[in-house]
Each structure stands twice: as structure tokens, then as C-alpha cells.
Amino acid sequence: MMSNLIDNIIPQQPPIEPQSDVHVLKARLEWGEPAFTILDVRDRQTFNEGHILGAMPMANDELVSRATSSIDKSRDIYIYGASDQESAQAVESLRGAGFEHVSLLKGGLAAWKAIGGPTEGTIEALTPPGAGDYNVVSRIQEHAETQKKDV
């Protein structure tokens, strides 16, 4: 009886879609909704070069073992890889391991950058000003360089 009452007072989050658009993820980040994890299943070097801000690196070959030991199986998880195909493979692996709320982030990093989603990484930090209008890091660098010129 008590659990029904609580369920009625605190509506449950709708389950995440099997595939998500980058706009959905960006909206959740902007609302400050912390109850989800973003996994990048590309190799570690590629991850270090640039990834979605806050994403965790978990290469496909170690994905299930690492996720099982560190992430709750009922948590919302967004996954992206080098391609939607690689992402789909990772999503299936996690679902097969008992993770309930796993979503493929369509378009991955490229789609994320195209809508101005925040990124971090060594190459992201080196994006030349102008080419990275959506990149917060390059905008800050560009601003710093402009300030130096005025002095």
C-alpha cells in the first residue's frame, strides 16, 4: 500500500528511448539532471583526443566487465562510439548483461558537436578559432588571444 502512495506522489521518470537524439541528452544536461551516465566506447586514444564533456571511457572490449562493476543496472546510460554500428553493438552488450535503460546516442560525437554540445580532450582544446565556434574551449582561447592583442 505504502509503495503505491509513494509512486503516485513521485512520478517515475519515463524510460529512455532505445535510441536518443543528441538534443535529448543536451536538454537533460542543461536541466542539471544528474541521474545518467554517458559512455564513450571508442578506443582510449580517440577518447583522449576529444569526447562529450563528462563521458566515461569504456572501450567495447572491456565494456561489460567495467560497467557491471561500476554502474547500477537500472541507471540511464547513453552510449556512443566511432559509428552508430559500434554504438549499437555496445548497447546490445550492455542490455545482454542486464542493464535496463541503455540508449544509443545517434550520430555520436559529430552530432553532439554540431549542436554545440560541450566537449573536452587534447584535440578539442587545439581546435583553431573559427572552426570550433561550438567548442567552448576554443571560444575561451579565442577570447584570451583577443584580450592579449588589445593590450
TrEMBL record:
Pfam name, any one: Rhodanese
Originating species: Calothrix parietina FACHB-288
Designated name of the protein: Rhodanese-like domain-containing protein
SMART domains, sorted: RHOD (SM00450)
InterPro entries according to UniProt: GlpE_sulfurtransferase, Rhodanese-like_dom, Rhodanese-like_dom_sf
Domain Rhodanese, residue spans: 32-121
